[in-house]
């Protein structure tokens, strides 16, 4: 027993010495550092965490290309328009108007239409895309760029069916770059960029893509083509014609409408997708006002009931019920009962698909139309023309 205590004591002293040595070499309050995988980054306690994507680059890229547009009718254009309306509806105007100085019986002058909106520079030499409803009525168009510089613009052409128009200013500019809107996914972040006032710089709002391919029946044209991108990025009337861009600042759409009961943004905004904008704009730049071609057919989108009724072998396509006389369809040999399943390399599932394909063609173009006729596929070369 007497030998045990010295052994325990010496062991205790040795252990204490080792502990103190470890503390000196490795302090207890030394922070723990974990391995960080490549690409990860340390965040200081004083740095606010990033929430969502960084839109700074997108905004800096897009805003120089977005302009303010003020458009109005000249007096001569207003008088011409009103005379045409009077001839169509002679009882809609006061008979004594001209006698009392060009206004109506109550002394009111004929009004000149005017309005404002936004536009997007798409070429270095000053071509600008905007909405038809922003400039379609006008022959006096003024543009203010993001830097505040003002220009007189001339109208190149319009396409009421897509609510698109092209104007031009003279100078050298930095254009926006197109993105592929077909690759845009629901849930992706987007920026709506507009220039609603000539005394303010561009406005930028963020949101996500809520839906694609929306048809709202808001374009006032019998041949309207609608396949809108829906977003919750705030867009107000002065932003019509502005840019919808992705997080890289590239153009995915042209802002054109809002759905609201009050006239101001209520959570639903709509843009024309860039993959529709680009070919339409290029055609306007080349030809001016668009002349739309037609096949000259009527019929129905195929559904299960129609398929059973006519014992069709194809599940999708457009069932031709009528063929207009002297139409491209009649000349090429398309018959009632044919089911159009493809035009060139593009599948046809609905009549809207046919309309969209026609919107990208010109008078005189030739297309191959694939039809299902009695269970067999037949390719029909067709020359496209405008139907009067």
Can you describe this structure?
This protein folds into 3 domains: 65-98 and 111-168, Trypsin-like serine proteases (Thrombin, subunit H, Beta Barrel); 181-287, Beta Barrel (Thrombin, subunit H), CATH 2.40.10.10; 297-383, PDZ domain (Pdz3 Domain, Roll), CATH 2.30.42. Strand 10 and strand 11 form a beta hairpin. It is 21% helix and 29% strand. The longest helix is centred in the N-terminal third of the chain and has 22 residues, at 4-25. The termini are far apart. The strands form 3 sheets. A 6-stranded antiparallel β-barrel has the order 1-2-3-6-5-4. The chain has a 6-stranded antiparallel barrel with strand order 7-8-9-12-11-10. It is built from 8 helices and 18 strands. With 388 residues, it is α+β, with helices and mostly antiparallel strands. The chain has helices at 4-25, 56-62, 75-88, 132-135, 274-287, 304-309, 328-332, 351-359; strands spanning 66-72, 114-121, 127-131, 140-144, 150-159, 164-168, 189-194, 203-214, 228-231, 243-245, 251-258, 269-273, 297-301, 318-323, 339-343, 346-347, 366-373, 376-383.
